[in-house]
Design goal:
This protein is α/β, with parallel strands linked by helices. It has nine helices and eleven strands. The structure holds iron/sulfur cluster (2 copies).
C-alpha cells in the first residue's frame, strides 16, 4: 500500500473507535465462551502499547472512543488500571466503556481493579456493561455484586449483556429479575421493569409508566433493551438489559442449543471517512473487526510496528473496497451471515488486505 495513497486518504477530522481486548486470560470457564478463554499462556496488552496509541492519536488530533472487552476478562489484565488511565485521561476521548463478567466475592483482583477504576475522575463518562447468562452458575452472584457496588459508589445505571438461546431466553430474563428482587429486599426498596425499549430514565418512573404503558406494552421484541429499575425512597437505579443470541464457536460449538451465526461487521456498514473502528488483540495486532481475529491474513498492522495513522488509512481503504468487492463477486455471499466473512477472507487471501489498491 503506497504512501501516496495513504496521503490521498488523509482527512481533516478523524474519529477512531477502538475495541480493545486487553487480555486473553479468563478463569471463569463458561461453556458458551466463543473465545475458548482460559489461563494457559495468557497474552496481555500493556501500558506501553496504550501510550503509543494515545501519543500518535494526540499528534494527529484524533478523537478516540475506547471499549475494553473480552476475549479474556479485562479485569484480569495485570496493567489494567495503567491502560485505563492512559485512555481515560486522553482529552479527545469521546466515549469509554468496559464489558466485563464482573466479580465473585473471592475474585479480589477483579473486584479491586473495577472499584478503583470506578473511582477515577474519568469514570464519570465510563459506560459499564456486564455479561450475564445461564452458562455458568456464578453470573447471578456477579450481577448482584456489580449492582450493589455501583449503587454504593453512587452510580445511576449500568448495562447487562445477556447471552441467550431461544431455549433459555425466558429463564435468563427470569433469573435476572430474581436477582434484582433479592437486592430490592435487602435495600428495602422495590424492583420493577419498565415496559419500554428506548426511553431515558425519568425522575418519576411511575408517572412515565402511567402515561405510556397502554400503547407501549405490545412493543416487546427479542432484541429490545429491557429496563429494570431498583427504587428506594432516596434513589432510582437503572439496569438496561440487552439480549444477544448464542453463537456456536469455540467452547460453545459443543452446545446443542439454537444459535444464530450472523455478521455485524463494521467494515460493511461504515461509509464515512470520519469514523473508523479498529479491533486490537492483546498482542497489539490490529484487525478490521473482531470476527477476523486471529486470522493472520486479516491483520491491518501491529501497534509498535506500524503507526496508528497508517493502520487507520489501511482500514479506511479496506472499508471503501470490501463492500464493493463482496457485491461484485460472482461467488456472492448470503448477506449478513458468516458466509459473508468466508467470502471476505477469500478476497483478502487473493488480493491482500489492501484488496488490490
Ligand atoms: S465468556 Fe467471558 S467470562 Fe466466560 S470464560 Fe469466556 S471470557 Fe470468561
Ligand atoms: S472477515 Fe470481513 S466481513 Fe467478516 S468481520 Fe472480518 S472484515 Fe468483516
Amino acid at each position: 500500500m503506497g504512501v501516496k495513497l495513504a496521503k490521498k486518504h488523509r482527512i481533516k477530522k478523524q474519529h477512531v473507535g477502538i475495541m480493545l481486548v486487553p487480555t486473553s486470560q479468563c478463569d471463569t470457564g463458561c461453556s458458551h465462551c466463543i473465545d475458548d478463554s482460559g489461563c494457559k499462556n495468557p497474552i496481555h496488552f500493556t501500558e506501553k502499547f496504550a501510550k503509543l496509541i494515545v501519543s500518535q492519536a494526540r499528534k494527529e488530533k484524533f478523537e478516540l472512543s475506547v471499549l475494553l472487552t473480552g476475549g479474556g476478562e479485562p479485569l484480569m489484565t495485570p496493567e489494567f488500571l495503567k491502560i485505563a488511565d492512559v485512555f481515560g485521561n486522553y482529552k479527545k476521548l469521546l466515549t469509554f466503556g468496559i464489558i466485563t463478567s464482573g466479580f465473585t466475592e473471592n475474585e479480589f483482583q477483579r473486584k479491586s481493579q473495577l472499584e478503583t477504576l470506578l473511582k477515577r475522575p474519568y469514570a464519570e463518562k465510563l459506560i459499564v456493561e456486564q455479561s450475564f447468562n445461564l452458562y455458568h452458575q456464578t453470573f447471578p452472584e456477579r450481577l448482584a455484586n456489580m449492582t450493589q457496588l455501583m449503587m454504593r459508589l453512587g452510580k445511576t445505571d449500568f448495562y447487562v449483556r445477556m447471552c441467550t438461546s431461544a431455549t433459555n431466553f425466558y429463564q435468563t430474563h427470569r433469573k435476572l429479575e430474581e436477582v434484582l428482587q433479592e437486592i430490592a429486599k435487602k435495600i428495602k426498596g422495590r424492583a420493577f421493569q419498565l415496559p419500554i425499549e428506548d426511553t431515558s430514565l425519568e425522575d418519576e418512573p411511575l408517572d412515565f409508566i402511567r402515561e405510556n404503558v397502554s400503547e407501549r406494552l405490545t412493543v416487546e421484541a427479542f432484541f429490545s433493551p429491557q429496563w429494570h429499575i431498583l427504587q428506594t425512597k432516596k434513589e432510582v437505579f437503572a439496569i438496561i438489559a440487552n439480549s444477544f443470541f448464542l453463537t456456536r464457536e469455540g467452547r460453545a460449538s459443543k452446545l446443542k442449543e439454537d444459535s444464530l451465526d450472523y455478521c455485524v461487521c463494521d467494515s460493511l456498514k461504515t461509509f464515512s471517512d470520519y469514523d473508523v473502528s479498529l479491533f486490537i488483540a492483546p498482542d497489539g495486532t490490529v484487525y478490521p473487526e473482531c470476527p477476523c481475529f486471529p486470522d493472520k491474513r486479516m491483520q491491518l498492522g501491529k501497534i509498535g510496528e506500524d503507526s496508528l495513522v497508517e493502520i487507520v488509512r489501511r482500514k479506511q481503504i479496506f472499508n471503501q473496497r470490501i463492500f464493493q468487492e463482496i457485491l461484485a463477486d460472482r461467488r456472492m455471499s448470503q448477506w449478513a451471515t458468516r458466509e459473508t466473512c468466508k467470502l471476505c477472507r477469500q478476497l483478502v487471501a487473493e488480493k491482500g488486505i489492501s484488496l488490490g489498491l
